[in-house]
Specification:
Elements lengths: L2 E9 L3 E9 L5 E5 L10 H6 L5 E6 L15 H14 L5 E5 L1 H12 L2 E7 L11 H9 L3 H12 L4 H9 L1 H10 L3 H10 L10 E9 L8 H9 L6 E5 L6 H4 L1 H13 L1
Parallel strand pairs: 3-4, 3-5, 5-6, 6-7, 7-8
Antiparallel strand pairs: 1-2, 2-4
Helix pairs in contact: 2-3, 4-5, 4-8, 5-7
Protein name: Alpha/beta hydrolase
Pfam families: Abhydrolase_6
GO molecular function: hydrolase activity
Length: about 260
């Protein structure tokens, strides 16, 4: 479906979030919550491939333009409250979908309020990427965004040096990654500072977790996925064939097709 509007919503701490709305703005739909190193624009192809809901609302979380700043009081709880504000605006939401850090946010939000369905792609939780925090802090304090991109790919995601150089060779893609690395240190710090919850998605009627086939049982994403799964009482697990953590970039149509299928289950 096509994007129809973009809305700006006030949230706490003198900040705001924008949302990109696809389809019918007033119809029941799916709310998408991206994770770190991602924004609403990087999910437009996935949103365009979804047709199982009358509307798709993609949240542009605070810390990335045109949304507002993280603010000094930023925490994981801030993200949950921001998503609550989005759900207050789109009160006919039928399902939440979160990717990575966004998956954790959606699962925790479903502790606060009833949600018919929560879907999370490789959600992460504490401890995740803690070893990279000192280097990320140094890079962020010196505004060395090239270094931030290197750290997240090498020290956290575990990609090779050759992979990073391939990314760097694409000047447009590298510029996007540099821009998205601005809030990375604060977000990863907030993720690891939050006490681990005893239960997630307590008020969700249905929970679906997705893992990329290439990450099954492997660090870091497969290991964190298994940890999250232990905190959910009733969950269905689905595997996306041939994919890893970046399916929204590398196979958006395939991911959109899976989400359509999950809506019908």
């Amino acid at each position: 479906m096509e994007r129809t509007i973009q809305k700006k919503l006030p949230v706490g701490g003198d900040s705001w979030v924008t949302v990109d709305v696809y389809g019918e703005p007033d119809a029941p739909g799916l709310v998408v919550v991206p994770g770190v190193m991602s924004d609403a624009s990087t999910w437009r192809q996935v949103a365009g491939a979804i047709d199982a809901w009358p509307s798709v609302v993609v949240v542009n979380r605070r810390g990335r333009a045109p949304s507002g700043p993280l603010t000094t009081s930023y925490s994981l709880r801030t993200e949950v409250e921001d998503l609550g504000a989005v759900l207050g605006e789109f009160d006919s939401t039928r399902a939440l979908f979160g990717w990575s850090y966004g998956g954790l946010i959606t699962l925790l939000t479903a502790n606060d309020r009833p949600i018919p369905q929560v879907i999370a792609y490789e959600p992460v939780m504490r401890p995740f990427g803690q070893q990279a925090l000192p280097d990320l802090r140094n890079a962020a304090e010196s505004a060395d965004w090239d270094r931030c991109v290197e750290i997240v790919n090498r020290q956290i995601s575990g990609f090779s040096a050759a992979h990073v150089e391939d990314l760097r060779a694409d000047g447009v893609a590298w510029a996007i990654l540099r821009r998205l690395s601005g809030p990375l240190y604060a977000e990863l710090g907030a993720l690891n500072a939050a006490p681990p919850p005893d239960v997630m998605a307590r008020q969700a009627d249905q929970v679906d977790l997705i893992i990329g086939q290439r990450n099954r049982g492997t660090a870091p994403y497969g290991v964190s996925f298994d940890t999250v799964r232990q905190h959910i009482a009733h969950v269905r697990v689905h595997e996306l064939p041939g994919q890893g953590h970046l399916a929204h970039v590398q196979a958006p149509a395939q991911l959109g097709h899976l989400l359509n299928n999950l809506a019908a289950l």
